[in-house]
Amino acid sequence: MAFKISAAYVGDDQVELTHGSSGSRMLTDLPPDNGGKGRTFSPTDLTAASVASCVLTIMAKLAHREGIKFEGASIEIEKRMQENPRRIAALTGVVKLPPGLEPVQREKLMACVKACPVSRSLHPEIKLELTAE
What we know:
Elements: E1 5-11, E2 14-19, E3 25-29, H1 43-66, E4 74-82, E5 87-96, H2 103-115, H3 117-121, E6 127-132
Parallel strand pairs: 5-6
Antiparallel strand pairs: 1-2, 2-3, 4-5
C-alpha cells in the first residue's frame, strides 16, 4: 500500500509537511542541538512521536478486541541523539497503562511495543526501551 506525503522547504529552517489524503499540514524545524530554533517538532522528534503514537494505537486495537478499558493510557518517550554519524541513538520511555489490569493483560499490551510497524522499521542499532508503569 503506497501513501504520499509532500514536503516543501518554507524558509527559516522549516519544512511544511502535507498529508496526502487529508491535506492536513504541519511544520518541522531544525532542533537547537543542531543550530536551529526548535520552535516545533524536528524530523527526528517525529520519529519518537511516531513510535509513541503507533504503540498506543496498536495497544488500543488490542484493548478493544480484548475488552480492556484503555482510556487514559499514555507514553512519555525520550529521544537521545548521537554524533558521527548524527542520528537517533535511543528511544526510551515509560508506558502508563490503566490501573487494575491483570498481569496477562499488561504483558499482551506491552508486546505491542515490538508489534508496531514504526518500531519494526527502526534501524536495529537504535535502542528502543519502553517500560510499563
